[in-house]
Structures are given as structure tokens and as C-alpha cells.
Write a structure and sequence with these properties.
The complex is a heterodimer of chains A (about 220) and B (about 110). The longest helix of chain A has 17 residues. Chain A is globular and about 45 Å long. In chain A, about 40% of the residues lie in helices and about 15% in strands. In chain A, α1 links the parallel β1 and β2. Chain A has a seven-stranded mixed sheet with strand order 3-2-1-4-6-5-7, sandwiched between helices. Chain A is built from eight helices and seven strands; from the N terminus they run βαβαβαβαβαβααβα. By secondary structure, chain B is mainly α. Chain B has two domains: about 45 residues; about 55 residues. In chain B, α1 packs antiparallel against α2. The relative contact order of chain B is 0.07. Classes of the chains: A alpha/beta (about 220), B mainly alpha (about 110).
Chain lengths: ~220, ~110
Amino acid sequence: MKTLIVIPAFNEAENLKQLLPELKQKANEILIVNDFSSDDTAQIAHSMGVSCLTLPDQLGAWGATQTGIRYALSRGYDQVITMDADGQHLPEELITLYNHKTQDSHVIIGTFPQRLSYLKKMAWRFFKILTQIKIQDLTSGFRLYDKQAMTILAGKEASLLDYQDVGVLLLLLRSGLTIEEVPVKMEHRNDGKSRVFSSWLVVMKYMIQTTTLCLANFGVKKST
Amino acid sequence: MTNIVILVIGALMSLTIFYLVRKDKMHGPFATWWLLVALATILLSAFPQWVDSIAIQLGIVYPPTLILVLAVGLILIKMLTMDMALTRKERKIRRLTQRMAILENKLDEFINRK
């Protein structure tokens, strides 16, 4: 089983300096997808001997992740694990994801429900009612995708998604894949920023876009 | 008088479209759409009585509303198809951007190996 660790990174040079040495002890093959950073994210990756793709324009977290998945497919990897660069996801928890993977499951999501703030919990509950998805943590970026999931997510259908959350899950469920969750430990964000929940305007945009997506996908197959 | 003004608008529109195509600033399907709009304008200036007779048959009391409703409807359809085209383009650009990053990485590897 060839596994690639995919880390989307936008201006994460400082965080990568901390994360990569630790991560290299736990995983052999790591790919940083540099999402048009203005700092030296790419140089840090190269200096630590980690492969790095540099996007010629900003695509956002999901666009960068998808790039990594397409790369992994073209290089014949069997599975991909995505994680954040900000130190929230711990290298020692990679093994939890590996171990939970069975023949019957296609996607494993590492969840840490305690991390959710009151506001986020409300939002998730709303989306779960809307989509009937029975997954606790909708936005966790700590996920394992197997080859089948990778093939679907590398496709054109997934290219217009903006976040690695409800849209990705709905697409996978619609394709009949099985998603499982496993509890993992998570660190609090080093710099305390969330891509999605950073300002009211961004939150509004996110809520409206995701609600539209949920409504448009009404009646999609439910998760177990 | 109104008819002549509308005729001039239609004629100017057709000329503009032909000019844009000639200067390579507009291509294929877009030019066709705009030429059809210009043609409709010219026809309207030549036979304004058509609007009245169609409006009466549809039971519209004030015939100019027919033109306005049709115009607004066509503009909405045009804008909707424009956004659909933009979506297609966005998807293409995103995928090409990804492809470029992957190819660039491959190229670097190839050069470093030499």
C-alpha cells in the first residue's frame, strides 16, 4: 500500500518548519501543495527534502488538496491522507487512520468533536439536518481516501467545490462510497486562525454557499 | 421618426458586431447572438405593426409591454447562460492550474536527474 500525505499550504512556512521534522519520522512520502504562497513555503519544503507542488494561481484549500490527489493518482499511489499544515493534526495520529481502514470503507475521517465551538456546532447541526449526512465532523481536513475515493475526487465534478467539507462528502456518498469516522487527538491551532470561520462576511458567504449546495443535492443517498 | 431611430440603432449594432469580428475581438456563437438581436431590431423598425397585431392576439392591452417583457426575458436568459459559461471556464482554469503545477514538478525532477 503506497500512501501519500498531502498537505495544502498557504503561507505556512513557519508551521511547516515545526511539522515536517516530526512528520518525516511517521511517514515516508509527503507532498506539500503550495497554494500560491507569498512566503517561502516552497523553499522550506525543498530544504527539508519534501516534494512540493507550486500552484501558479490560488485555488483555495480544496483546490490545492485536489491537486495533491491528482498527483497521487498519476504516480500510482493507493491512498492519500490529507492533513492541515498548521499543526492541528498530529503526525502520531496517522496510524489511527491507517488502522481503521478496512476493505469496506473508502474514506476515514479523523474527528475531534471537542474542538468545535458553539457556533460551529450549530452550523453543523443545520447542515446535517439539511443533507441527512450522519457524520459528526463535517470539516475535518484529517482524512484518508482510498483509490476509489481518489478517482472520484480527482474528477471534474469535484473541481468546482470550494471547501473540503459537505460538498466533498455529498459527492462521495452519491457515488456509493462508505465513509467512516475515527476519533483522534488534535492540537489547538498554532496561530488560532480558521480558514472558514475567520470573519463574519466569510462565514455568511460560506453558510449561504453551502446551504445552496445542500439544497441542490436534496435526496442524495444517506451515509451509514 | 421612432422607426428611423430604431433602424439606426439596429444598423449600428450590426456594424459594431462585424467590426468586432473583423478585429478578432468577438468569436463565433457570441457574434451570431448579437447579429440576431440587431436583425430583430431592424425588422422591428421596418414592421412595427407586427408588435401591435401579436400583442392584440395575446390579449395585451398596451402593446409596448410585449417588447419590454420579451427584452427583459432575453436579457435574463443571456445572463444565465453567461454565468453557465463562466462556470465552465472556471472549472477549466482550475484544472489547468493543477495540471500545470503537476507538470512543472515533473519537469523539475527530469531536469534535476540529468
